[in-house]
Amino acid sequence: MPVSSLSNAKPSVPPRTAPRASPKGQQTRAAIVDAALSLASQVGLDGLTIGHLAELMHMSKSGVFAHFGSREDLQVSVVWEYHHRFRAEVFEPAIRAERGLPRLRALFDNWVHRINAELASGCLFTSGAVQFEAQDGPVRDALTASVSTWLEALSRAIEQAKVQSHLHPECDAAALSFHIHGLILSLHYQTRFLKAPDALRHATSGFDQLIQQHSAN
Amino acid sequence: MPVSSLSNAKPSVPPRTAPRASPKGQQTRAAIVDAALSLASQVGLDGLTIGHLAELMHMSKSGVFAHFGSREDLQVSVVWEYHHRFRAEVFEPAIRAERGLPRLRALFDNWVHRINAELASGCLFTSGAVQFEAQDGPVRDALTASVSTWLEALSRAIEQAKVQSHLHPECDAAALSFHIHGLILSLHYQTRFLKAPDALRHATSGFDQLIQQHSAN
User: Fold this and answer.
1) Would residue B63 count as lying in a domain?
2) Per residue in B7-40, pLDDT tens?
3) Do B192 and A133 touch (CB under 8 A)?
4) Chain A contact set for B130 (CB, 8 A)
5) In this predicted model, what pLDDT tens digit does every residue of A76-132 receive, in sequence order?
């Protein structure tokens, strides 16, 4: 796998706006998705209804329906908007860090920072996993595709750190990625749900220990 | 802290049945809680309604209400029933293992086993954390009290492993407990939501690496 592949985005992510809509139509659609994302952060993706959204937007339900064929289309659009924002806040600043361990660390730090920043709202990747765990369909597919993209980015950053001789060549990237994801999930759970005061410290010291354990030196 | 304290159960857990009810009343109440737990495993604690439950039990709504003052009381009873089952499946078999590392490993293994066994239904500790994250009240309190009991049991098992010289005396029990909980959450997320085939292997190898890293030898 070429080390440049961290910048690949698989699976292909739909554009933010419908390509054939007029500029005004695109603007309205973007405003609806923005409001829908805020709403979903409070009530969950599965709590999102076109009626509630229309009320918030001071639009008719048919006005909202004109931009999204169905509630499901709207939910999928919200997932991809969340994906774009995650990319902008977590992934893109990390890709500007030096390849190898600095980039891996930036990816982790930005992810942790985002969890803390989202304290007042919610993380769609976590709530969505619970809400759509047993509901096959396009919303679940969009969520798993998006999360998988970021877990693969984490694995690729680990592979690059091996290539750069920052991590030991025998380090299992998939296993370490699983382990780091665990620290992120534990941080999320213990901060948001248990309100544990030491969670951030445990997550960062846990990451440092993992890196030390897999260090090439 | 005395090493025997792993067997303490804090916070105090309510009894399974209302103490003043007749044997017949206790039996009915237990049957309702059992059905409610099955239902909650499918639709979530927040999806539990007395109407739906009455229908499942072939009872009137007022018949169900006679055993539980409110929907919230029913939800709290379901959380404690889940707690009792978790104790029986994860905690009690572990307490029979030798104190120290064998007990810590048994606790982890039983927890992992339970996650796999619950694949067809759901884990209330995970779904409940999302559903009641922002809803203060007795249901959230019961959930956090129950989860905290098991995380404290994990920390105590680590402390005992230090006393037994199985783990290094400088090992930070709270940090290691956070880390192990991360492996459990990652296993849950990647198995149930992403259907990742290697999740179990990653969780167990992650645990082995953590133990090795903190080993006294």
Assistant:
1) no
2) 444 445 565 555 567 888 889 999 999 999 999 9
3) yes
4) 44, 122, 126-127, 130-131
5) 999 999 999 999 999 999 999 999 999 999 999 999 999 888 776 778 888 888 888
What is the domain extent for residue A89? Answer: 15-213
Taking the model in full, what pTM does it have?
A: 0.89
In a domain, A1, yes or no: no
Contacts of A175 in chain B (CB under 8 A): 198, 201-202, 205-206
Q: How far is Cα A167 from Cα A183, in angstroms, rounded to an integer?
A: 19
* B185 vs A contacts (CB less than 8 Å): 182, 185-186, 189
* Residue among B175, B189, B192 minimizing CB distance to A205: B175
Domain-located, residue B2? no
Model ipTM value: 0.89
Is residue A115 a part of any domain in this protein? yes
Find chain A residues with C-beta within 8 A of B189's C-beta.
129, 181, 185
Two structure tokens written together for B35: 């059905």
How do residues A137-167 score in pLDDT, each as one tens digit? 999 999 999 999 999 999 999 999 999 999 9
Q: How many domains does chain B have?
A: 1
Residue A5: what pLDDT? 43
Please indicate whether, in this complex, the C-beta atoms of B179 and A148 are within 8 angstroms of each other: no
Low-confidence ranges of chain B (pLDDT < 70): 1-20, 120
Q: Can you list the alpha helix ranges (DSSP code H) found in chain B?
A: 23-43, 50-57, 61-65, 71-86, 92-95, 101-117, 124-131, 138-163, 173-188, 199-213
Most A CBs within 10 Å, among B189, B205, B207, to test the A interface: B189
pLDDT at A11 over 80: no
Q: Is B114 exposed, middle or buried (CB count within 10 Å of its CB: 0-12, 13-18, 19+)?
A: middle
What separation in angstroms does the CA of B3 have from each of A27, B73, B100, B154, B217?
A: 63, 35, 9, 13, 21
Look up the CATH number of the domain holding residue A180. 1.10.357.10
